[in-house]
Design brief:
Blueprint lengths: L23 H7 L11 H10 L2 H8 L4 H7 L4 H13 L3 E4 L3 E4 L1 H6 L30 H12 L8 H20 L8 E5 L7 H7 L4 E6 L4 H10 L6 E5 L12 E7 L7 H14 E12 L9 H10 L9 H10 L3 E7 L4 E7 L2
Parallel strand pairs: 3-4, 3-6, 4-5, 6-7
Antiparallel strand pairs: 1-2, 7-9, 8-9
Length: 355
């Protein structure tokens, strides 16, 4: 997150921008940094797995599912799923169809206490204990209260200035790449639901000057979004609409395109389908919906950044999904011809059409 006293980044775009290459993650990894809001060292996750007995459990059973892990360790189902995803992305576990897991040769060599090369007790992991949300022990009163308040009052999480800056810097390259796919060239009016700082609406408006672009976000956030639009000189091109995406029915203008970027990962499957059905109701005939998300590969063993986000999301109703799982949600909502278009790894556009 951008520091309180740090200068605001220059995020102004031009109509002739080109998505940068190589990916920003490659550059940051060389500097030991990452686009990640919970800046834990990667060793922290491995240390948690070792202390929870996850490696010993896999050694005992050979191949395990979530049930064996929950029966043999302090982890609950969310914790087991979250840590196993990270271990797979690190090459310390191997997944079978994303539901059964075994130790990799690397883990057997270095992370089993029976091995003479065991290093699990020497990992630098300064953040302490695994949060109780991932274990079978009851969360403390303060943690439960904080969690309930956040999900009962979305304005406590979204729309403030620092969070908008953080989201803008993290998501802008991938959103520029999404616009560059050409997926939106035939849209007349697009509504960017839960559009945050305009990280998608701004490059879209610059790329397609004749398109009507409506950015829908929490009413409390609108005053903090306007500076982003002014900086890019699209304040007269991007319309702002106050909307709480969780409160339905939506009141959207007539539109033939709806974009939901980096948002459905915080929703349960049932909540996501309800939101997508609202998209279906709001779109004109032949209109399309696009979900832009950081997705799992089909085996749910990578990429690492998706695994880390999935770990964090286990404390919410949501999770990271594969492209197929997102297409399934779109189909359940009544859309046809679902498709997946990669944008900026590990992001992809998952689309469906209203027949």
């Amino acid at each position: 997150m951008i520091g309180r006293h740090a200068p605001a980044p220059n995020t102004a775009l031009t109509r002739d921008w080109v998505p940068p290459a190589p990916p920003l993650d490659d550059l940051l990894s060389k500097m030991g940094s990452k686009l990640w809001p919970l800046d834990r060292p990667i060793a922290q996750y491995v240390s948690w797995a070792e202390k929870a007995g996850l490696f010993a459990c896999m050694e005992q059973y050979g191949v395990v599912g979530l049930r064996e892990v929950c029966d043999s360790t302090p982890l609950n189902e969310k914790g087991a799923d979250a840590l196993l995803g990270v271990l797979c992305a690190l090459g310390l576990a191997e997944a079978e169809a994303g539901v059964r897991y075994r130790l990799s040769p690397t883990a057997r060599a270095y992370l089993l206490r029976s091995s003479p090369f065991f290093i699990g007790g020497h990992l630098y992991a300064p953040k302490g204990k695994l949060p109780s949300i991932y274990t079978r022990s009851a969360p403390k009163l303060l943690a439960r209260t904080h969690h309930r308040l956040l999900y009962a009052m979305p304005h406590m999480r979204y729309g403030n200035r620092s969070r908008l800056w953080n989201q803008h810097v993290r998501n802008l390259p991938a959103c520029c790449a999404a616009v560059a796919t050409g997926e939106f060239r035939d849209v007349r009016c697009l509504v960017d639901v839960a559009g945050g700082s305009g990280t998608f609406s701004i490059p879209l408006a610059l790329k397609y000057p004749s398109m009507r672009v409506v950015l829908a976000e929490l009413p409390v956030a609108l005053k903090n979004i306007r500076p982003f639009l002014h900086q890019n000189d699209v304040q007269d091109r991007v319309e702002l609409l106050g909307l709480d995406a969780f409160q339905m029915p939506w009141r959207l203008p007539d539109c033939d395109g709806i974009f939901i970027g980096n948002f459905l990962h915080g929703c349960s499957d049932s909540s996501g389908v309800r939101m997508l059905r609202e998209c279906h109701r709001s779109l004109s005939q032949g209109g399309k919906v696009w979900i832009h998300e950081m997705i799992w590969n089909d085996n749910k063993d990578g990429p690492l950044i998706t695994a880390l986000w999935n770990f964090a999301l286990q404390s919410s109703p949501g999770r990271k999904r594969t492209g197929k799982e997102l297409m399934d949600l779109i189909s359940q909502a009544g859309f046809v011809e679902p498709s997946v278009v990669p944008t900026s790894a590990p992001f992809a556009l998952v689309a469906g059409q209203k027949s």
